[in-house]
Amino acid sequence: MSDDFSPDQKRYLEGFMSGMQSARAARGLGPLGGAAGAGAAAPSGPDKEHQEAQGRAVAGGGKLVDQEKWKAAEHPFDAYARFKAQAEAGLYPKPDDNFRWRYHGLFYVAPAQNSYMCRLRIPNGILKAWQFEGVTDLAEKLCGPYAHVTTRANLQVREISAENAPLLLEGLADLGLTAKGSGADNIRNVTGSATAGIDPLELLDTRPHARAWHHHILNDRSLYGLPRKFNVAFDGAGSIATLEDTNDIGFQAIELGEGASFEGQPIEPGIWYRLALGGITGHHDLARDTGVIVAPSDAVAVADAIVRVFIANGNRTDRNKSRLKYVLDAWGFDTFLAAVEDKLGRKLVRVDASLVKPRPAYDRLAHIGVHKQVQVGLNWIGVALPVGKLTVAQMRVIASIANTCGDGDIRLTVWQNLLISGVSDAKVEDVVANLQAIGLSAETSILRAGLIACTGATGCKFAAAHTKEDALAIAAHCEPRITLETPVNIHLTGCHHSCAQHYIGDIGLIGAKVPVNEEGDTEPGYDLLVGGGYGVDGGMARPFREKVKAQDAPALVEAVLRTWQIHRAAPDESFVAFARRHEIEALQALVAQTGDAA
Fold it and tell me: H-helix or E-strand containing 403?
């Protein structure tokens, strides 16, 4: 047993491991490892770091949460045969297996839908048209006949029966795709710049780094079973924001000028990644700059070390305090980075921010419409998707367009839409016409371009409102009544999990149960917030009004937007600037006046 443990901790750990052995034996499973003291198995193998962390939590007097007990009793990757047996019997999982099957990318979403949802892994959000068409085939045969583009530049499919779940997972593998680790306490889909390699603005092509990290995770079982989920993003400073500051690790491409040094040694000027840590918008935090720069070729090694420090020290006794943010809050950045350096076996390079050149400004509308690529004569075309939803018929046409008019790539974005890249100037009109023929467009209103919504109560048991439907209702109400000249993001999320990141929206709405009588009856609605932002405008939205009925939300959003247009300091004052220069009470009074006037 590791010398890192005191004699008392070793005794606690042996008792903990003995208990886990008993739980496995009750399932008819084999032991976790070889014998160690008093017949208990010492942590060993690829799960050793996790077992030791669990043991330390118990030795320190903590009580593991159920999810940690479930991991220890049977690792989800050891349970695939049981999963298939359940599927063949048409059975859906109980809570412990519902957690385990999420390691395979499957979420049992009852009571919202008595079926599975599957979330894929698509590194940097880019897949080939033939893979996209293959997912279309699987969705048509095994799922509901549609897919959603998510806020992690990913695809998810829904309405999967128990019997069809293994067929879907194995069908994805046949396409060179996977859903492994896309749920539960794992490193989620790796995001990168949507226009990587084609953007005239970018400093760095993120595709090789996102891909390398993706395969590093897939091929190392010890990187599964973290204290809680973990997000990593690579931003190349291109036209479309990647929202890397909402991730646990954000790699931000920067250009370093001349004259930088670290510990007396000169640092080569050029393109590096700046390291930001601790983003989790649902807990009111964006990733914070560490002062560390990372050579792009070293990003995987640094990310691995960060994750392993988190594995060893993240909270396994309180799910509400189990994300990386809380280790950083407890330790401070200097202590945490020292632990990362110890894991790496070398120092991280730090530079003064004054030596970093300003990053290019992103274009908040670059994910929609026709845009020139760095390759002469070629364009990317951003397709507007109604809150991220695509039918299988639309998916087939998009795959065909990408093959015949583009470069064969389909690029998903964190803005719940997709890009078709490599379209020659001569074929742009053909692409636009074909999109219109299937009810889609490369054009949309500024309001719809910034409209983001999670799955909502239609498909998620946690959601308190039907976010996608309500988002479309907001657009339908506002568009005839108000014209936006500058971008505004409106984010609707159904619950505290904040999948649609309502805290970084210019206007954010989070699902709430609205009381309607003294008997305690409720109906779906929202709490509304204002003034959130990301990147250079980074900050959390502030509460504006609580318990708004869903049917009243469109008129309230209109009133807030109209107030901004009437009272902004100048025609180009952004909504976030307007909202932040007012105290909430003053803003509420202005909106009330505007509503009365309307």
Answer: helix 392-405
CA distance 113 to 126: 29
User: pLDDT class for 42, splitting at 50, 70, 90?
Assistant: confident
How far is Cα 240 from Cα 196, in angstroms, rounded to an integer? 10
The 10s digit of each residue's pLDDT in 166-199 is 999 999 999 999 999 999 999 999 999 999 999 9
Nearby residues of 25 by Cβ (< 8 Å), 6 or more positions away: none
Q: What is the 3-state secondary structure (H, E, C) of 467-498?
A: HHHHHHHHHHHHCCCCCCCCCCCEEEECCCCC
Cβ distance 306 to 299 under 8 Å?
Answer: no
Identify the weakest region by mean pLDDT among 28-32, 128-132, 269-273: 28-32
369-372 and 378-383 beta bridge pairing: antiparallel
- What values do phi and psi take at 307, rounded to 5? -60, -40
The distance in angstroms from the start CA to the end CA of the chain is 72
Distance CA 267, CA 347 (A): 14
Q: Is pLDDT of 30 > 90?
A: no
According to DSSP, residue 384 is labeled B
- Strand pairing report for 522-530 and 378-383: unpaired
| SS3 (DSSP) at 404 | helix
Residue among 552, 586, 554 nearest 567 (CA): 586
* Average pLDDT value over all residues in the chain: 93
**Beta strands 146-149; 389-391: pairing state:** antiparallel
How many angstroms separate the CA atoms of 361 and 88, rounded?
Answer: 53
> CB-based burial of residue 383 (10 Å sphere; 0-12 exposed, 13-18 middle, 19+ buried)?
buried
H helix intervals, 115-201: 129-142, 165-174
pLDDT at position 113 is 93
- Reported in sequence order, the residue ranges of 460-595 that DSSP labels E, i.e. its strands, are 490-493, 507-515, 522-530, 542-549
Per the CB < 8 A criterion, the answer to whether 560 and 582 are in contact is: no
Query: What is the DSSP secondary-structure string of 96-133?
Result: HHHHHHGGGTEEE-TTTSSSEEEE-B-GGGEEEHHHHH
The reported pLDDT for the residue numbered 72 is 94
Rounded mean pLDDT, 320-340: 98
Provide the edge-to-edge strand list for the sheet that holds 116-119: 106-108, 116-119, 155-160, 146-149, 389-391
pTM of the predicted model, to two decimals?
0.93
Token pair 């200097």 is found at: 334
Q: Which residues pair with 450 in a beta bridge?
A: none
